[in-house]
Amino acid sequence: MDSQDALVDEPSYLRSWSGEPILMTAAHRHDDLEINFVAGGGSMLYLYGGELLEVEAGGLAVFWAAIPHQLVASRAARVHWLHVPLDHFLAWGLPQPLLARVLSGVPMITPAARADASDPAKFTQWAVDLAAGDEELHRIAMLEVQARVRRLALAAVGDPAHRYAGDDPALRQAVSMARYIARHFREPVTVSDVAAAANVHPTYAMTQFRKVVRTTIGEYVKLYRLAEARRLLVTTDLPASQVAVAAGFGSVSRFYRVFTDACGTTPARFRRGRGL
């Protein structure tokens, strides 16, 4: 887990590891499909997609990590993490409704009561297989991961998330602001707009948001716009100029500048790299 007090773009490559989670001191993003399995202890609490989502012990969560996310509380003693690069995920040929669901920022979460009893052994084995230098073991592990995601999608009907029932005032205000951003980032968004969503003064809103999310409101809005631009680039054939408008960037030139700085490549090269 990241420990930097800043927004972080992680490198994208297939990886699996486990251990005790460390709270994230800032929201971050990466293009991978992220899979979390809480193997022991208590639950984990994520700020994701403008909501607080709880993954309980024995539970499994799958989400597209391009959406800003942050682990803000945890009682878990052991968690397995698996990151699947976006190009691998797209190559699975998943049903369009499932693909649209994940890329639109709707997580899939299975509670412990509906979990697969074989998950602890599977995640342990996948970590071993993916760390090995054997190409066939690598291929087998990826086929099994794909099958697990497909099964999870079948089970994740209705409300996909266990929303946090706690009443921490600072978290509640930050979530109200994050939720507003998640719903309105495509529009011009001001600090006053975001503050009004939490019924607080703009100056106080900036302070509280940074205290909880550890970044500015403007940077958080930018992360959402970048995630939407990535989604449109890999799921549509819209030209970059229309992607810029649809994702909420004020101009095409700003879109190119922000996207290139954040992704290390142009929108066109990003799209080509995903086979589109």
From TrEMBL:
Keyword Signal (UniProt): no
Keyword tags: DNA-binding, Transcription, Transcription regulation
Keyword Protein biosynthesis: no
Signal peptide (from-to): none
GO molecular function: DNA-binding transcription factor activity; sequence-specific DNA binding
InterPro entries per record: AraC_XylS_family_regulators, Homeodomain-like_sf, HTH_AraC, RmlC_Cupin_sf
HTH araC/xylS-type domain segment(s): 175-273
SMART domains in alphabetical order: HTH_ARAC (SM00342)
Matches recorded under Gene3D superfamilies: Homeodomain-like (1.10.10.60)
The organism's place on the tree of life at top rank: Bacteria
Protein name, UniProt field: Helix-turn-helix domain-containing protein
Organism in which the protein naturally occurs: Kitasatospora sp. CMC57
